[in-house]
Design a protein that fits this description.
The structure holds two protein chains of two kinds. Chain A is of the alpha/beta class. Chain A contains four helices and four strands. Chain A has a four-stranded parallel sheet, covered by helices on one side. The radius of gyration of chain A is 12 Å and the shape is globular. The relative contact order of chain A is 0.23. Chain B has five helices and six strands. In chain B, strand 1 and strand 2 form a beta hairpin. Chain B starts with a strand and ends with a helix.
Chain lengths: 97, 164
């Protein structure tokens, strides 16, 4: 069994949207056979936390020079392009470590 | 008067959805005006502290909450830190004319918003079920339209269908 991948989920205040996004990522990736651990944070906390994660998924702008992939998307809130984004995340995590 | 709550089965706090927290066909010319009117309702009904409204406005400036949806009706979900909330509730407005919110994912982009859901949340992890239902709602343009075209607050709450 591979180590679970680590996904940092960011939004403005880590109150509402990241809660929904984290849950949707866990479920969507489980359906794709990938086990993930998510952690929610505020956008401002991303640079300090990123080094411990394989990927950042955010609903609000964050720096992109973090050394790990960043996906900025509303798909988990609006449904638009959700399957494509999940496929993209799965692809990134399969390639990482 | 319909008064209902939505929350997870394990959650301790229920989210109140009440006709008293719904404003139909609100006349407003800016996002700030919409937020102020909805926050005033939440405050008058005892769901939030007086500090809530400014906290929401400040957050909206730093991290906007406009969500462009699939259909031609778009929404915004302003909210603020949990410390300003007394008891969780949603205040909802349909707008007579769209007002501009900035896009959550790209603040440079303007989103003409027709439905605003001001969220007073105090413990999102126990309110995850309601939040997921809200996201599921956004993903169905037909239901978004039903909410927008509801004739009464009761009809609106029913169309929103956030009750577990």
């Amino acid at each position: 069994m591979a180590q679970p991948k680590r996904v940092l989920v960011a939004c403005g205040t880590a109150i509402a949207t990241s809660t929904v996004v984290a849950k949707a990522i866990e479920e969507g990736l489980a359906a794709r056979g990938i086990s993930v651990i998510t952690r929610q944070c505020k956008a401002a906390e991303v640079p300090a936390l990123a080094k411990d994660f394989d990927l950042v998924v955010t609903t609000t702008p964050v720096p992109t020079d973090l050394g790990i992939p960043v996906i900025q998307t509303l798909a988990f809130l609006t449904g638009i392009g959700k399957d494509q984004v999940l496929d993209q995340i799965a692809e990134i995590l399969r390639r990482s470590g | 008067m319909a008064e209902s709550s939505a929350g997870s089965s394990t959650g301790t706090q229920k989210v109140t959805l009440s006709e008293r927290l719904v404003i139909m066909r609100m006349e407003a010319s800016s996002a700030e005006e919409v937020i102020r009117q909805l926050a005033a309702r939440l405050e008058a009904e005892g769901f939030v502290r007086p500090s809530f409204v400014e906290a929401v406005l400040e957050r909206e400036r730093a991290h906007p909450t406009g969500l462009p949806l699939e259909g031609d009706l778009h929404v915004a979900i302003p909210h603020a830190d949990v410390v300003h909330v007394i008891s969780p509730a949603l205040a909802i407005a349909t707008l007579a004319r769209p007002v501009i919110f900035r896009n959550m994912v790209n603040p440079e982009e303007m989103v003409p918003v027709s439905i605003v859901i001001l969220m007073a949340l105090d413990e999102p992890h126990s309110q995850i079920e309601m939040l997921q239902r809200l996201a599921a709602f956004f993903q169905e343009p037909q239901r978004v339209r039903q909410v927008y075209e509801a004739r009464t607050a009761e009809e609106l709450i029913q169309a929103l269908d956030l009750l577990s």
